[in-house]
Amino acid sequence: MSLGYYFLLPVIFSFLTPYFKKLGSFTLRGSSILLSFILFVQSIAYTTMKLPQISQFSIKPPLGIAFVLDGYSLLFLLIFTFSAVIVSFYMLWYFKVNPKRDEARFYVFFNMLIAGSIGMILSCDIFNLYIFFEIVGICSYTLSAYNKDKLGLESGIKYLIIGSIASIFIVFAIMLIYLQIGTVNLGLIAQRFHEIDPKISVLIVLMLFIGFGTKAELFPMNFWAPDIYQGSISSVNGLFSSVVAKAYLFVFFHLFYLFGLSSKYMLFVMVIGAITFLVSEFTALNQTNVKRLFAYSTLGQLGILFMALSTNSSETVSGALFHLTSHSISKLLIFLALGILIHHLKSTKISIFGDFKSRFLTIIFAIGFLSILGIPPFSGFVGKILILKGFALSHNYSAIAFILLVSIVEAVYFFRLTAMMLDKKGTKRVVHVGFINYILLCVLAALIVIFGLFPSLLIHYTDLAANALINPTDYLKFALGVGL
Amino acid sequence: MSLKKTLPIKHIVLSILSSALLLSLLGLLMQVKTDLHKSVGDIFLNLNMQTATANAVTSVVTFFRGIDTVGEVTVLFLATSGVALMLSTSQRTYAKIIKQDSFILNVGSRLLLSVIILFGAYIIIHGHLSPGGGFQGGVVIATAFLLLFLANPNMDLNHSILTLGESLSGSAYVLVAIIGLFKVNMLLGNFLPHPVSEIGNLISGGIIPVIYVIVGIKVGSEMAVIVEYFVKEEHEKEIENA
Fold first, then answer.
1. Angle in degrees, CA B98, B99, B100, rounded to 5
2. Predicted local distance difference test score (pLDDT) of residue A2
């Protein structure tokens, strides 16, 4: 299957959604599940093929636009399509317990959110990337306002304004790049980025940093994220945390290494990442709303990832990618379980963790929390230890001390939540998980444990991804259309 | 109260910072040396003969950067769906406005309707020959529906036809892209014959006019839906206020 189908198939499914709706809700829900399944199975098939793969549009690159899949994008492709499968099944439960919602339009935005995110990781043309930012942007603005209550509309309009301003910075950077180099192909830009006048190149980097920093929720520009998590439904929170934020992070570091910025700006990104980690974890301590709490926790984890991914050493980057995968799975698990809890207890206060009685959910939450904290035998532990090992190999002991110290803060609120769940006092409400959710949460929890016990299953792919990220020679060859 | 006291200081600091940033930005931009003669835009202009369209902009929009246009059409579709999601409530029954229609206005707008639609169709069909194209023509067609709404606010558009136009044209665009893959081994490839000798004729340029017709139908129906939602929303408010 050509890579272009990753974008074209969801587009055709979205266009036909009104007719799926006419055929009944079974077809509508089934079509979304079918679509995410096709994409996921295809992504698994790519793991056995020789990488990079290319799919061209209209004319050959570097003139035309192409989708290129290398090791780095393969890892993200697997994460995104897997999240899509899980969330599309979860929505079966959601629409069963909330029957009056506008289903068809949700599936339009859901399918296109996934398609746009996949487009962002595949496209090798910087202006084409911008189109995908717009698609992902519009989908996330609308999905965050999907509740249509006061909080939902607030988050939607806030996201719309912030997202559009960030897009202006990105499009301005693209314009400057085109004025300087005369092309928008990533391969050609990567080859000739050092020829740009240093003053202008600083400006371009600054613009890109502000644009992507805002979208990828980096410290000075991430004040909006918790509000948006607070206003939107839990499955959308899961998507924002494990797909959208990760897609922007992907593009950030893809451009970072392609344009050869790692030597100049490594320390800068690392310090910003460290500040993000520190500030978010401390802010998370005194949150009273669970969604805000987990939003700040997501921001903190993104901070670690920014620290580790900017290091330009393959061990640390591979560890960071492992941590990223593990974080995506854990946050999806937590947000989906949280959705069930919020539906039954009708509250988003932090005290709901003390008010429910369900051994299954307690175990699921505990696995999620402990994995994010980095406690063996869960996958978060392996991710964190690999990052720390990478820092140790490059003799960056201050980073190790910093991560370990701030993780204590993280431990405080996660253990507080766990203690609340285990507390036997007070009136407890029984929570029914439902059959579909039972299986979904089991699958996610099993993945966390499996990757924790047998990390080599995943390390193979993260090593491949780290090498493709740091030495993009193969990618450049395909992006430039050499030998096609 | 404390918030009010801090606000002016914040504003002053922010305005100083932003003006400093703007000035330094302008200073930098003055020094930008552009050498656009080797840009990809010029290469596209030289390659324009390959596509056999008289309008070079069209060949860039629909062919050289075709997947961007698929994306743009999708963005428009998503925007329409977003408007519909936000402005529609479950089981809304549009209250009719009690206002006597003006007979002359009604008849006049109906007379103009066909002219406007014809003009829009002309712009769409001649997209590869003259300035204009699917996006512009589609919007012109949507203005015809806006005119109808202005003359008669109680009018309802036929949604099944609009949905049909939207879905079929969108799917047809994707299908054209996929057929290209099988015929010329390139997604969105120009698989129809496009001899250079035909340049300037109505039937020339291979798939390019086909794509523009599809885009025109898509844009026209999407914009008509948006116009309808906005007009009806406005009436809802008027009735609530009355």
1. 130
2. 86
Please report, for chain B, the start and end positions of each structural domain, with discontinuous segments joined by +. 1-33, 37-241
The answer to whether B86 contacts A142, with C-beta atoms less than 8 Å apart, is yes
Contact B59, B53 (CB under 8 A): yes
Those residues with Cβ within 8 angstroms of residue A144's Cβ, 6 or more apart along the chain or in another chain: A152, A155, A156, A159, A228, A231, A232, A236, A240
**pLDDT over threshold 50, residue B37:** yes
pLDDT at position B49 is 83
The conformational region for residue A260 under phi > 0 = left, psi -120 to 50 = alpha, else beta, is left
Side-chain half-sphere of A94: how many Cα atoms within 13 Å? 23
Backbone angles phi, psi at A145, to 5 degrees: -95, 15
Residues in chain B within 8 Å Cβ distance of A146: 85
Higher pLDDT, A426 or A175: A175
A180-219 tens-digit pLDDT: 888 899 999 999 888 888 888 888 999 999 999 999 888 8
Chain B CB within 8 Å of residue A182 CB = yes
| Residue range A320-337: mean pLDDT, rounded | 95
Q: Does A119 touch chain B (CB under 8 A)?
A: yes
How many Cα atoms sit within 13 Å of B73 on the Cβ side? 35
Nearest by CB to residue B64, choosing from A58, A176, A200, is A58
**Residue A125: which of A197, A68, A171, A184 has the closest Cα?**
A184
Q: Which residues of A touch B23 (CB under 8 A)?
A: none
Residue A284 Cα, gap to closest chain B Cα (Å): 24
What ipTM was reported for this prediction? Answer: 0.92
pLDDT tens by residue, A29-82: 999 999 999 999 999 999 998 888 898 888 888 888 999 999 999 999 999 999
Interface test with B, best of A9, A15, A113 (most B CBs within 10 A): A15
Does the beta carbon of A154 lie under 8 angstroms from any beta carbon of chain B? no
Question: Which tens digits make up the pLDDT trace of A342-363?
Answer: 999 988 898 888 888 888 999 9
Q: How far is B184 from chain A (nearest CA, A)?
A: 10
CB contact under 8 Å between B39 and A119, yes or no, is no
For residue B79, the chain A residues in CB contact (below 8 A) are 138
Rounded-to-integer distance, Cα A221 and Cα A227, Å: 13
